[in-house]
Design a protein that fits this description.
The structure is a single chain. The protein has 165 residues and is α+β, with helices and mostly antiparallel strands. It has 2 domains: 69 residues; 84 residues, Chitinase A, domain 3. It contains 3 helices and 6 strands; from the N terminus they run H-H-E-E-E-E-H-E-E. Strands 3-4-2-1-6-5 form a 6-stranded mixed β-sheet. Helix 1 runs antiparallel to helix 2. The longest helix is centred in the first third of the chain and has 31 residues. It is elongated. The N and C termini lie close together (9 Å).
């Protein structure tokens, strides 16, 4: 592990802040889509006019996105931040560094949502992954020092877990 530790509370706060920004944008988009779906201009003029139907599908999708973001924020607000060492298996809230990422000072944070979110804290690069992702699924329940072998897209990642905390 590098000498600069990552404060998990600060990391979670940063993730929540990002999710809240996404939520704000999603609420605006959902409201606009809903307004378009019920607008007088959306009324079908012929049997082939699908503008209102398309607008209602969009509104439904945006509303689902709002709900997902609300759930993600809730999950992070209630996430228990655990401490990990070589004797504790990887689980939610673990910061994991693979051997090949050591020089790049790159870490993976296993979170309940927001997979793919990237940030930098204390000169450390962090990518959020979820247990449902291929890498997250492979790392769950493993221990520091263990080898991993995971199919990622068209390639395969073969490495070992250098650090966990």
């Amino acid at each position: 592990m590098t000498s600069k530790k990552i404060d998990k509370k600060s990391l979670v706060s940063l993730i929540i802040k990002n999710l809240q920004q996404e939520l704000s944008q999603a609420v605006s988009a959902a409201n606009e889509a809903h307004a378009a779906a019920v607008d007088d201009q959306s009324v079908a003029e012929t049997q082939y006019d699908t503008l209102a139907i398309e607008a209602s599908y969009l509104a439904e999708g945006q509303s689902r996105r709002v709900q997902e973001l609300q759930e993600a924020i809730f999950d992070y607000q209630n996430l228990v931040l655990s401490k990990f060492d070589e004797n504790k298996p990887i689980a939610l809230s673990a910061l994991v560094q693979l051997n090949t990422d050591n020089k790049k000072q790159h870490w993976f944070f296993i979170g309940p949502a927001a997979g793919g979110f990237r940030c930098q804290l204390n000169e450390q690069h962090i990518t959020v992954i979820t247990p449902e992702s291929p890498l997250g699924n492979t790392l769950m329940r493993e221990f520091e020092g263990e080898d991993i072998n995971v199919l990622l897209g068209n390639g395969r990642l073969i490495d070992y877990i250098a650090s966990v905390y």
